Amino acid sequence: MERYFNITGACNPKYHYMVNIQPRLEKIKELIDRGAYFTINRARQYGKTTTLNALKDYLRPEYLVAGIDFQMLSHANFKSEDHFVKAFAREVLMAVQDEKIVPDEIKSELRSFSAAGSCDDLGTLFLCLSSWCRKSSKPVVLMIDEVDNATNNQVFLDFLSQLRGYYIHREERAAFQSVILASVYDVKNIRYRTEDQNGSVRRNSPWNIAMDFMADMSFTADGIKAMLEEYASDQDIDMDTAAIAGMIFDYTSGYPFLVSWLCKAMDENPVSDGVLSERKTAWTKEGVLEAVKLLLSEKNTLFESLVNKLDDYPKLRELLYDLLFTGKNIVYNPDEEALDMAVMFGFVKNEGGSAVVANRVFEMRLYNMFLSSGDDQNSKLYKAALQDQNLNFNKNKQIGVKHIRLGDKLLIEAVV
User: Fold this and answer.
1) Could you give phi then psi for residue 237, rounded to 5 degrees?
2) N- to C-terminal Cα distance for the chain?
3) Which residues lie closer than 8 Å to 270 by C-beta, 6 or more apart?
4) How many helices (H) and strands (E) in the chain?
5) CA distance 335 to 189
6) pLDDT per residue as tens digits for the range 281-328
7) What is the pLDDT of residues 186-199, one digit of tens each?
8) Where are the domains of the chain?
């Protein structure tokens, strides 16, 4: 089967062209070797699931990995403890049913828990999980993908508290070697709201034992270059892989989805001088610019998700507007709510202590959105843009603009 560039779901090197994520896996394994519990929280389509899938195989020689996905749980599964225990036991059992080193009595107990009414509380479930960790011939690692599906749920908070309790008392009670949660939202920001006997309200995090996850999940220019070299060899295409990779990185800052989208466009919908062409002529500077134009003019799941976030969080919208149009220097402060959200959703990054839009593609797409929104202020900005045609996307960087159009068509047609 011929490999291709993938922009839907997790990537697999058997079927897809991928940037080598081995260095990322090595850094994550260092945390696991230290017994860390942590969350991989990154923006949508940033490679979280791809990373977890690759990590399972990478850890297999030394660890027993139980990887589950909360997408497989319904709203009803979080309705109460007994519903959650049943669903959780079912998914863990599915994850390890082919693992011969899992004791039969543990599988049997999980199987009984997955049946209705056999276990109705988290405490009993965790006694089973602790027994498993004690008897296992390999340290057990628990991975849970898509935990955003449960973050506002009390049962999930209770589940995190159990994980925390066993982590704290791991010298007396066997516990998972490591627990990895994957999400967009930072689970450490979740707070219990409790009242003491005097009626005073306290807020505590059930996940405050988690270590910060600092690994960079963006692609590097060198990583993109290596991927393109594989592709060029397979397709017998002569291209300047270093130059093309550098351009792709300049526009995307290594955002995985955007990198794959541009590569897929040049591979499957190659354009040269504004018309369809052969693949071999698309992998040029002009081809990258055509792919960027196409990306900016089409809808995709990532852009739709970003726009929805702006509608949901007006302060986030205001922050991005200020960054793009006022030239105002915004000091990077993770304690500021709107800025924290902007980083969490992938809009913004910290560059030398200042908040800047995460990549040039987002800058241009956001410009298009704001300029075409129709309010009076944006209309004035649009008229000024027509006169000047050199928009200051970032106060530290000028990007030339050739054409600006209204309506559904691209406002920023070409960039250099």
Assistant:
1) -115, 130
2) 37
3) 276, 277, 278, 279, 281, 282, 287
4) 16, 10
5) 11
6) 889 999 999 999 999 998 898 999 988 999 999 999 999 999 988 877
7) 787 665 544 444 54
8) 22-204, 221-297, 301-388
Q: pTM of the prediction?
A: 0.87
DSSP state string for 77-145 = GGSSHHHHHHHHHHHHHHHHTT-TTS-HHHHHHHHHHTSTTS---HHHHHHHHHHHHHH-SS-EEEEEE
Residues 157-184 have pLDDT tens digits of 999 999 999 999 999 999 999 999 999 9
Helix (H, G, I), strand (E, B) or coil at 63: coil
Q: Which residues lie below 8 Å from residue 291, measured CB to CB, with a gap of 6+?
A: 262, 265, 266, 271
One-letter amino acid for residue 89 of the chain: A
Angle, CA of 262, 19 and 340, to the nearest 5°: 75
Does residue 95 contact residue 167 with C-beta atoms inside 8 Å? no
Do residues 359 and 399 touch, judged by C-beta distance below 8 A? no
Phi and psi (nearest 5°) for 83?
A: -65, -45
Cβ atoms of 134 and 123 within 8 Å: the answer is no
Find out if CATH 3.60.10.10 is the number for domain 22-204: no
Q: Count Cβ atoms below 10 Å from residue 107 Cβ, excluding itself.
A: 16
SS3 398: coil
